[in-house]
Amino acid sequence: MNGYGGKILAVNLTNGSTPFVILDPEVAKGWIGGRGFASAFLYYAIEKGTAPFSPENAVVMASGPLSGTFVPAAGKVHFATKSPLTGGYGDSNMGGHIAAEMKYAGFDAIIIIGKSKRPCYLFIQDDEVQIREAKHLWGRGAIETEKLLKEELGQDFQIAVIGPAGEKKVSFACISHDFGRQAGRCGIGAVLGSKNLKAIAVKGTKGIKIADFDEMVRQGKKMFSWCQEQPFLKIFQRCGTPVVTEMVNQWGSLPINNFKTGHSDQAKNLHAETMRKEVVIHDKACFACPMACGKYSRAKTEKFDVYVEGPEYETIALCGSNCGIFDIKEVAYANYLCDELGIDTISGGGAVAFAIECFEKGIITKEDTDGLELKFGDIQTFEYLIKKIALKDDSLGKLLAKGVKAASRKLGKGSKDFAIQVKGLEWSGYESRDAMAMLLSYLTSDNGAHHSRAWAITKDIELGRSLVDGKAEIDIYLQHIRPMFDMLGVCRFTWVELGIEPETYPQILKAVTGNDYALDDLLKASERVWTLNRAFWFREIKDFGRKYDMPPARFYKEPVPTGPTAGKMPTLETINRLLDDYYKLRGWDENGKPTKEKLIELNLEFLIPDLY
């Protein structure tokens, strides 16, 4: 098939089988690839009620039709599973080079089920697929493991790994690749750990069949030239995602001390230029990417000396300011700890900040912390807690390893109000009490409180932050176009930051695959995936609905105390109005369930028995 590896690999770790099937062209055309494949294959692969850590749960790893081709930033791979953190649909997207390598080995997706009796890793070299023993890797850090496997197999293998947190089944353990790229969200690394799968190592030499090679090269050159001509490219190459830190703080949207507020004068110590001066060694890019937003850094003080890719903005926000840490070297060290342990920096930072606030309020005491006083702004506190979590060391570590929603249920005493999450997923790096589109995007994200589905805060700034009318429409558009890039297997930054027109992508997709798409066709496919994921939640969680789309109580009980948004806070009436508008525009009922009519419209009739 043009544009595709052409095969789907099915791995059963229980019996050791590794068969593959040929990718159906109609499946490829309907679900596109990447996130589309991951969502659809997951829905079909597991039965209703499958426990996240059951051998019957699946992890799907999928590339897109543009992955590995001559398109800027064509290095994205998508993972999906039933999340141990939320109990619903969980996915995460990762850059680097492994998506291209999968395609070159001939595989568009890998579906992993079962559980190995002993630690193992998956070895793929073109058509050769083996489940190999990994006893020598078990217990080792993610960075260390990738280094060891490259030494063992060869530097040209692309490798995805889990760290000790994944092995211990920490509910927000991540998957790491290329010494600093992560599929961070939703605990997919924990599901791999539950299967005793330490790593996936891939090498491919087959290449990809292209429908119109000359046209792909022509359009690809045009896209690369466009990127090189944009003035913002050099800024982004220099700063990466931390370029937004100063701006977000000025907006009053930088999370501070467990989202108590959104602005701090100390944030200047976390700005991109400070980071460039204090820790950055050189720039680092994913496959075919001219933006090189990765920053390889060294954090050296009297207490530590580590190398790490990062920190990027979300890590600065959640492991930095949200934990009261405003020293960029300490944030880089926190980043290193999470990367080596195999922990999502967003959920990890959220869990640490939650624990510190619980300590401030006397809900957690020194009896729980080996006598240590938990404090915001203290790297020792961060290191102590993140290691407790990763290793599930004692009752506190085990509690926090379940995520802030589960921890607050156990702790009680009002802690639920400041457990900053939606659907069980910790909130990422934007305080949104005075940003209604951004707030709504978090509430309605199909995997929990995650910003990447609809980075709508710029529309709040442009149109009016407290404005409600029209915000649902904005979010829905963004929730279709942004995941479209995940389906194609390309990074969205070339659109967001450099302004490549969305209409460009169906054109080069036709050159690669030969399939004729209009932009509206791709957006409709994205809506279909979004609706399928919503159905997954209803299938798996008995009482799922509107109440799962609500923010933490802090956001409607406590006005922002300081900064540019001081005094701001939406009412419950406003929040419900936003949801009402959103559900109506989506064709969902008042509880947020897709109607039968909407399912029929999207050719998702097969979901009706599961939802009705």
Can you give the helix content as a percent range?
Answer: 40-55%
Report, as a whole number of angstroms, the end-to-end distance. 37 Å
Low-confidence runs (pLDDT<50, min 5 residues)? Answer: none
- The CATH topology name of the largest domain reads Aldehyde Ferredoxin Oxidoreductase,  A, domain 1
The CATH superfamily title of the largest domain? Aldehyde ferredoxin oxidoreductase, N-terminal domain
Strand content: 5-15%
Number of helices: 26
- Give the tally of β-strands: 17
Radius of gyration: 22 Å
Global morphology: globular
Tell me the number of structural domains.
3
Describe the 3D structure.
By secondary structure, the chain is an alpha+beta fold. The protein has three domains: 7-203, Aldehyde Ferredoxin Oxidoreductase,  A, domain 1, CATH 3.60.9; 233-426, Aldehyde Ferredoxin Oxidoreductase Protein, subunit A, domain 2 (Orthogonal Bundle); 436-498 and 518-611, Aldehyde Ferredoxin Oxidoreductase Protein, subunit A, domain 3, CATH 1.10.599.10. It contains 26 helices and 17 strands. The strands form four sheets. Strands 2-1-6-3-4-5 form a six-stranded mixed beta sheet, sandwiched between helices. A six-stranded mixed beta sheet has the order 8-7-12-9-10-11, with helices on both faces. The chain has a three-stranded antiparallel beta sheet with strand order 13-14-15. Strand 16 (421-422) and strand 17 form a beta hairpin.
